[in-house]
Specification:
Blueprint lengths: L21 E7 L2 E7 L22 H16 L6 E7 L16 E6 L6 E6 L8 H22 L4 E3 L2 E7 L5 H12 L23 E4 L1 E4 L2 E4 L9 E5 L2 H17 L4 H16 L11 H8 L11 H12 L6 E4 L8 E11 L1 H9 L4 H8 E11 L4 E7 L3 H4 L11 H15 L1 H4 L3 E6 L2 H9 L5 H17 L2 E6 L8 H4 L3 H8 L5 E4 L8 H5 L3 H5 L13
Parallel strand pairs: 13-16, 15-18, 16-17
Antiparallel strand pairs: 1-2, 3-7, 3-8, 4-5, 6-7, 9-10, 10-11, 11-12, 13-14, 14-15
């Protein structure tokens, strides 16, 4: 309606007072999306929300496939082939009726007419930008998905206004049709009072994605082709065009020599989304320079040889070989390897003093002061064998690339021990699931999240996941108390005590001469070398999860 808000419904309170909000636009997919600033006028702060929403991950389709496999197993039939279809509500937030429609109006000054004048337009539905809009709107697609699950056994889920429908091939597009008809019955076509102009949301037919084995779900290419194969899995990846666009943004900024904090934030968000559909936590640590630019850097320069440039070069190498995420339908019954790693660190003032007395420089004396050890114990439940190994940290090599002013290197050494055990026993880890226990929370956090604030630790974490990719190894990290960590013994060279602990408990104990700690030349090689170094082994085709 032009120049006037809609009439109040019968029985409404007389006298309507305006609640003014600013409006601004956000560029989105080649268009401008209007946002009402519910924060600036205090509306969001004055809104009390008693509920929230929980959105699904793109891996929901794998959850549905696993449930289908369980159902098929209970019936004694093979796992059926599956598809996924999607549909989208048209103008979702604007088509949900609100209890106070007279508050949703937009006013602006129009300079074109003669004379110029202010104009007022009524907006149906929610103001996009109010804290209550998302929660209140979410009730509708939640109702739709619960309804089709309970009444028609359609395994549907929604991400805001997007509805995801995994189904078996034999069902065709019946699931998509059920969702369509349910939405029609819930609003469109139902007679309502003339003052209530909004009926209910309808589907946007241009955004329907018919049932197919391969479809884009929440921006991620979802491939259900191998659900019924052996071993069955659902694969996820990101379109090559998305990866190319990220590298193009990087390249343009590098050629320009400038990357602003806002651009760094946007680029980091795009990269993290891309990596979410890849194997493990691979590559996340290489986003550290972007985080630094987003929050801390004063300079906006983007120069050759900088950390940002190294990040750009890393992703230029990683994206072409980025491994897709594969989630198995039937979990692998093979028991995981149990791995314990540990490191010790201390300083020897006597060694430093002796080095100075022998004529060494202060720098060499400082290095001589550093002492420590790495240790690892691996248990294979298949044959009940135990392997253990230890090594001294190669200080001269490591400090050529690590910072030399740290008070302690214990977190870095703990992470280095975690890398070294896989290099020491590569054939044992090949294609296996692993439960890896560490007693240092800093190193543990870095390896769990694939990310670290310290550049040295971030580099080790990056290498770990490249190495795990090369071995086709799936690792689950967990904390173990120091007194319960058996790897504490080899890290302190207490081999007699370790042998006494293992005597009579296991079939075989196989000590290694030393942990195979990668030397400094390995750290200077291209990152791809870490995933390719095990290519000569008989690696499985799929990555375990």
């Amino acid at each position: 309606l032009r120049h006037a808000p809609p009439p109040s419904p019968p029985g409404s309170q007389a006298g309507v007072y305006p609640r003014i909000m600013e409006r601004f636009g956000v560029r989105q997919k080649g268009d401008i999306r209007a946002i009402d600033n519910g924060r600036s006028n205090g509306a969001n702060a004055a809104t009390r929300l008693y509920e929230t929403i929980t959105t699904p991950h793109f891996s929901f389709t794998a959850v549905a496939a696993r449930a289908t496999a369980v159902a098929a197993g209970s019936l004694g039939i093979p796992i059926p082939h599956m598809t996924v279809s999607l549909c989208d509500l048209a103008m979702a937030y604007r088509t949900i009726p609100t209890s106070q429609p007279w508050y949703t109006a937009v006013a602006f000054y129009n300079p074109i007419p003669t004379p110029p004048r202010p104009e007022i337009y009524w907006l149906p539905g929610h103001n996009f930008g109010l804290a209550s809009a998302v929660v209140n709107f979410g009730r509708y697609p939640e109702l739709v998905t619960i309804s089709v699950r309970c009444q028609y056994a359609v395994d549907a889920e929604h991400y805001y206004d997007d509805i995801i429908i995994p189904d078996v091939v034999a069902a065709g597009e019946s699931g998509l049709r059920v969702v369509r008809e349910s939405i029609l019955m819930l609003g469109p076509g139902v007679q309502r009072p003339t003052w209530q102009r909004i009926q209910a949301p309808e589907l946007d037919p241009d955004k329907d994605k018919p049932a197919a084995a391969v479809n884009v779900v929440l921006g991620v290419v979802t491939n259900m082709t191998n659900v019924a194969s052996s071993p069955g899995f659902v694969a996820y990846s990101v379109n090559a065009s998305r990866k190319d666009s990220i590298l193009a943004i990087f390249r343009t900024a590098f050629e320009r020599g400038v990357l602003s904090p806002h651009e760094a934030a946007s680029l980091r968000g795009k990269i993290m989304f891309t990596l979410s559909a890849a194997y493990g936590a691979i590559g996340r640590a290489a986003t550290l320079p972007l985080l630094q630019r987003q929050y801390r850097d004063v300079s906006h320069s983007f120069l050759a040889g900088s950390e940002l440039h190294h990040s750009y070069m890393f992703f230029s190498e990683l994206f072409p070989i980025l491994p897709r995420l594969e989630i198995p339908i039937v979990p692998d019954p093979t028991p995981p390897l149990l791995v314990y790693t540990d490191a010790s660190f201390w300083r020897s003032r006597k060694r430093a003093r002796r080095a100075l007395e022998a004529g060494a420089s202060e720098c060499d004396a400082a290095r001589a002061e550093l002492r420590g050890a790495l240790g690892a114990v691996v248990y294979d439940p298949i044959d009940e064998s135990v392997r253990y190994a230890a090594a001294d940290p190669p200080w001269d090599l490591l400090l050529s690339s690590w910072r030399t002013d740290r008070k302690t290197y214990i977190a870095e050494l703990e992470a280095l021990a975690a890398v070294a055990v896989y290099t020491t026993f590569p054939t044992l880890f090949l294609g296996r699931k692993v439960n890896h226990f560490i007693d240092n929370t800093v190193a543990l956090s870095a390896l769990v999240h694939g990310y670290a604030g310290k550049p040295d630790l971030a580099k080790i974490t990056n290498v770990f996941y490249m190495q795990a990719l090369g071995l086709r190894t799936s690792v689950y990290f967990d904390y173990v108390a120091s007194k319960a960590n058996i790897a504490d013994l080899p890290s302190r060279r207490e081999f007699d005590k370790l042998k006494a602990e293992l005597t009579g408990l296991y079939v075989r104990s196989s000590p290694s001469a030393a942990l195979a700690v990668p030397d400094v030349s390995s750290w200077e090689q291209p990152l791809r070398s870490w995933s390719d170094r095990f290519s000569h082994l008989d690696r499985p085709a799929h990555l375990p999860v």
